């Protein structure tokens, strides 16, 4: 498994990198036999250290966790504990969804845009109705079942997931509603 361990405005020593590989590797070996790579980013927010980890599984799913603590090793331990808890909760679902899948999740490319925020305090009419595009990026849209899409969204901690429905071959959306339930848009 490949590890990418970085720090935002802080130095990451060799001892911490070894600790990350040991702790995260042990948690992943318990619940996931096929991780491909992990990205771990350490940063400092006021007096706390923040550890964010994203693990890509060969099945195409991503698991993400975030930990906060006043010490950097404790932040890593909190992050690994959350990752361990997520993978433990979804182990049965991962097995059920992927036991018949012989190949990784298929995905296709799409354009992703970031639009400029409209200032609510400005009551005047905008000059044009065209939105201002701040950034344009390439993104991947996975081909999943609805259950896999919900699981992927929850594992990644994302509020919304756009995916291609395997059964209907159309683009669908799952999202977390304000009432805590999951919404599914199937045009």
From TrEMBL:
It is found in: Cytoplasm. It comes from the Bacteria. One of its GO terms (cellular component) is cytosolic small ribosomal subunit. GO terms for biological process: negative regulation of translational elongation. Interacts with 100S ribosomes. Belongs to the HPF/YfiA ribosome-associated protein family. Long HPF subfamily. NCBIfam families: yfiA (TIGR00741). This is Ribosome hibernation promoting factor. It comes from Sagittula salina. The lineage of its organism: Bacteria, Pseudomonadati, Pseudomonadota, Alphaproteobacteria, Rhodobacterales.
């Amino acid at each position: 498994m490949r590890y990418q361990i970085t720090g935002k405005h802080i130095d990451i020593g060799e001892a911490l990198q070894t600790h990350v590989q040991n702790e995260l590797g042990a948690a992943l070996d318990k619940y996931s036999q096929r991780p491909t790579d992990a990205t771990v980013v350490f940063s400092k927010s006021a007096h706390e250290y923040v550890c964010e980890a994203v693990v890509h599984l060969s099945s195409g799913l991503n698991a993400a966790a975030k930990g906060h603590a006043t010490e950097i090793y404790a932040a890593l331990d909190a992050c690994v504990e959350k990752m361990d808890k997520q993978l433990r909760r979804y182990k049965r679902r991962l097995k059920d969804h992927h036991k018949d899948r012989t190949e990784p999740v298929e995905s296709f490319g799409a354009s992703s845009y970031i639009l400029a925020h409209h200032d609510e305090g400005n009551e005047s009419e905008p000059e044009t109705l065209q939105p201002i595009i701040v950034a344009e990026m390439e993104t991947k849209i996975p081909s999943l079942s609805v259950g896999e899409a919900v699981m992927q969204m929850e594992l990644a901690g994302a509020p919304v997931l756009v995916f291609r429905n395997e059964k209907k071959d159309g683009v669908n959306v799952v999202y977390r509603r304000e009432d805590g339930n999951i919404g599914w848009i199937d045009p």
